[in-house]
Design brief:
single chain, about 475 residues, mainly alpha, Amino acid/polyamine transporter I, 20 helices, globular, disordered N terminus, disordered C terminus, transmembrane helix
C-alpha cells in the first residue's frame, strides 16, 4: 500500500492530525525549513574534517568544494522537482519505490534509516566526548542525557524539533560568519598576531594552488562529499512543511550561496590567514586559525560549535528515522506498529525504536571501540550517498515519464535536466571509484555487500509473506 493510498485509509491514520500530510502536522514554517536546509550542509566535516583535506590538497580544496557544491545543487534541484510533483514525508524512498521499483524503495528506506541510526550513535558519542572539555563526567551520562532530551523533544511536536534545529543551525552559521569577518579584519586592518603575515597570496605562493597536483585534489573529493551528507534532509520535511510549494524551493535555491559562503568563502579566508602547510589532520582549521591570531578562546569556541553540530545531527537522526520507518510500514515494507503516531502527529514507535538502538550503539561503542564498530560507522558514508543516487535515478525516470505525457510536469523544474542529473551520477560514480582506491576510505565499501545481502533476504521474505508490500501499486 502506498502512502497516497494510506491517506484515504482510516485504519492507518488513527490519531493522526487532520491537517498534516500523511497524518503529520504541518508545523514547520519557512524560517525553520530555511535553517534546516542551511544546517544540513554544515557539520563536523567542515569544523573538524577539513584539516585533513587541506593537508592533502592545499588551497585547491577550495575548487574541490566548489565542484562538489555544484553537484550537490544538481542533486537538490532534482529532489526539488520531485518534491513539487508530490511532496511526501517518505521523500526519496517514495520516489525510488514509484520510479524504480518496490525493491529500490525498500532498500532506500532501510538504508537511509540505518545511515541516521549509525550517524546518531557516532554523533551522540562525540557530543559526550566534547562535554569532557568543560566537565569531568562519565561519557555515558552525557550521552544518555542528550539522547533522552532530543528523543523527548522529537515526540512532543515537529514544531519543537524545527525550533531546536533552527537554533543549532544558528550557532553553526554564526560561528562561520564570525570567523569570516575576523579573518577579513585581519587581512584588511592587520590586527592580531597574524596581521603581519596574513595575505591572500598564501593561496598560490605556498607551493602553488595545486601543491600536491590535481591528483591530490581529486583524492579529497570523498572527504568533501561526506561533509555534505544530510543536505537532503530537507526533503524528508515535505510532509510537515506548512507551505511546501513555497518554502522548499526557496530553501533548495539557497544551496549555491550557502556553499559559496560557508565552505568556499570560509576556506578562502582561513587559508589567507594561515598558510595551508600549517594545517594537519585531526586539528580543526578553525582552531588553527584562532591560534595563529593569538586568540586563546578559539579551542573553547570551536568545541562548543562542534558540540552543537553533533547534537544537531543527532536531532536530525531522531526526526528522520521515525519518518522513514513509518513510510516503510505504510507501504507494507516494515512492521505495522511503526505507523502509530502520537496525538501531536509524531511517529511514536519508529522514533522510540531508533532512539533505543542509538543508546545501545553508544554503550557498544564505549565497551568495544574496535574495528568492527569502525566498519559500521564508515558504512554510514556510502549509505548516505545511496540516497543521492536514488534521487538522481528517480528524477531521470520521472523526466522520461513526463516527456511521454504519463505524469504532470513539476512546478519546480531542475535546470539542465536530464544532463545535470547524468553528470551528478557520473561524479558520484567517480567518487566511489576513488573511495575504492583509497585505503582509508575503502573500508566504507566493505560492509555494502553484506548489507545488500541482508536486505535482499529480508525483501524475499517480505514478498513471500506479504506480496502486496513487495508489489508496486500505481498512484496515478
Amino acid at each position: 500500500m502506498t502512502s497516497a493510498q494510506v491517506e484515504k485509509d482510516p485504519a492507518h491514520t488513527a490519531g493522526d492530525a487532520p491537517d498534516g500530510g500523511e497524518g503529520y502536522q504541518r508545523g514547520l514554517g519557512a524560517r525553520q525549513i530555511q535553517m534546516i536546509a542551511i544546517g544540513g550542509a554544515i557539520g563536523t566535516g567542515l569544523f573538524l574534517g577539513a584539516g585533513k583535506a587541506i593537508s592533502k590538497a592545499g588551497p585547491s580544496l577550495i575548487l574541490a568544494y566548489a565542484l562538489a557544491g555544484l553537484v550537490i545543487f544538481f542533486i537538490m534541484r532534482a529532489l526539488g522537482e520531485l518534491l513539487m510533483y508530490r511532496p511526501v514525508s517518505g521523500s526519496f524512498s517514495e520516489y525510488a519505490r514509484e520510479f524504480i521499483g518496490p525493491f529500490a524503495g525498500f532498500v532506500t528506506g532501510w538504508t537511509y534509516w540505518l545511515f541516521w541510526v549509525v550517524t546518531g550513535i557516532t554523533e551522540v558519542t562525540a557530543a559526550a566526548t566534547y562535554m569532557t572539555y568543560w566537565f569531568d563526567l562519565p561519557q555515558w551520562i552525557s550521552a544518555l542525557v542528550f539522547t533522552v532530551i532530543l528523543y523527548t523533544a522529537n515526540l512532543i511536536s515537529v514544531k519543537l524539533f524545527g525550533e531546536i534545529e533552527f537554533w543549532f543551525s544558528m550557532v553553526k552559521v554564526t560561528a562561520i560568519l564570525g570567523m569570516i569577518l575576523i579573518c577579513a579584519g585581519v587581512l584588511t586592518l592587520g590586527f592580531s598576531d597574524a596581521g603581519d603575515t596574513a595575505s591572500v597570496t598564501h593561496l598560490w605562493t605556498q607551493g602553488g594552488f595545486f601543491p600536491h597536483g590535481v591528483g591530490g585534489t581529486l583524492g579529497t573529493l570523498q572527504i568533501v562529499m561526506f561533509a555534505f551528507l544530510a543536505v537532503e534532509l530537507v526533503g524528508v520535511t515535505a510532509g510537515e512543511s506548512k507551505d511546501p510549494e513555497t518554502t522548499l524551493p526557496k530553501a533548495i535555491n539557497t544551496v549555491p550561496w550557502r556553499i559559496a559562503v560557508f565552505y568556499v568563502g570560509a576556506l578562502i579566508m582561513i587559508l589567507s590567514v594561515v598558510p595551508w602547510s600549517e594545517f594537519q589532520a585531526g586539528v580543526s582549521p578553525f582552531v588553527a586559525a584562532f591560534e595563529k591570531m593569538g586568540l586563546g578562546v578559539g579551542a573553547a569556541i570551536v568545541n562548543f560549535v562542534v558540540l552543537t553540530a553533533a547534537l544537531s545531527s543527532c536531532n536530525s537522526g531522531m526526526y528522520s528515522t521515525g519518518r522513514m520507518l513509518r513510510d516503510l510500514a505504510l507501504n507494507g515494507q516494515g512492521p505495522k506498529l511503526f505507523t502509530r503516531l502520537t496525538r501531536s502527529g509524531t511517529p511514536l514507535v519508529g522514533t522510540t525504536f531508533s532512539a533505543a538502538l542509538m543508546l545501545v550503539g553508544v554503550w557498544i561503542n564505549y565497551q568495544w571501540p574496535g574495528e568492527a564498530f569502525e566498519y559500521v560507522v564508515s558504512f554510514a558514508t556510502i549509505s548516505g550517498m545511496w540516497a543521492w543516487i536514488m534521487i538522481l535515478v528517480s528524477h531521470l525516470r520521472y523526466r522520461a515519464r513526463t516527456a511521454r505525457g504519463e505524469l504532470p510536469e513539476s512546478s519546480f523544474k531542475a535546470p539542465g535536466a536530464p544532463w545535470a542529473s547524468l553528470f551528478a551520477l557520473f561524479f558520484l560514480g567517480c567518487v566511489i571509484v576513488m573511495m575504492a582506491a583509497d585505503p582509508d576510505a575503502r573500508i566504507s565499501l566493505y560492509c555494502a555487500p553484506l548489507w545488500a545481502l541482508l536486505l535482499l533476504g529480508s525483501y524475499l521474505a517480505l514478498r513471500a509473506g506479504n506480496p502486496e508490500g513487495a508489489a508496486f501499486a500505481k498512484r496515478r
